[in-house]
Fold this sequence. Notes:
With 241 residues, the chain is α/β, with parallel strands linked by helices. The chain folds into 2 domains: 2-96 and 190-227, Nucleotidyltransferase, domain 5 (2-Layer Sandwich); 103-188, 2-Layer Sandwich (Nucleotidyltransferase, domain 5). 33% of the residues lie in helices and 26% in strands. Strands 3-2-1-4-5 form a 5-stranded mixed beta sheet, sandwiched between helices. Strands 8-7-6-9-10 form a 5-stranded mixed beta sheet. Strand 6 and strand 7 (120-127) form a beta hairpin.
Amino acid sequence: MKTLAIDTSNQPLTVAVVDGDRVLATTTITTQRKHAAYAMEIVERLVKLAKLTPADLERVVIANGPGSYTGLRVAVTIGKVLATTLGIELVTVSSLQTLALNVTAEQHLVVPLFDARNEILFTAVYRTSPTGPKLVVPEQHVALADWLQQLQQFTEPLTLVGSDVPKFVAQFQEHLNVPVRTVAGINNLPQASQLAMFGEQQPPVADVDQVVPNYLRMTQAEAEWQHKHPGEGSTGYVEQV
């Protein structure tokens, strides 16, 4: 299956074209966050380098969050447009699960994380398996202190993964009573080639039009609306827009 995968959810921008278990072309950029300016250009270039045309693609896989508001919208928009215009399947995969794919040892507990600023993380716990990471603790937008308390339940080693891990690893090691491991170098970056091959095994979305980014937190507009309308929840906000 000829598959295009895109992850623009955080600082790295990673794109790949694969055919089954063969990587045809891939690029990962970590030096800028102007994903809206570069992502589509990179997609077009990689498809061409893979000696394919857009019409050859059979599936597009996107990392749909959590992460940067703007970054998430880039991959989601490109994925939906391509799926609709080319008439191909669209698969969405968690951005945290995408990171967890980089830990291949079986039966390991993996803690992928992104820095959400102000000592807050996007994170979860996965267990590795032959068919991909399985969710153990749900994905959260959570204060670091609260997350460390949740992780006290585990008696097995934990493997942290993500380019933001160096900011927090010392606190994990200090507050947890189990070995805290890290991964090396490039394995802390999302890999679109891994995302593509994993996405080939996942069911496509039933309705492309209903796909939205998984922000895992309220947008600024929602937060401001709820501040002005205490006790009204999010339903009223949706009706007001």
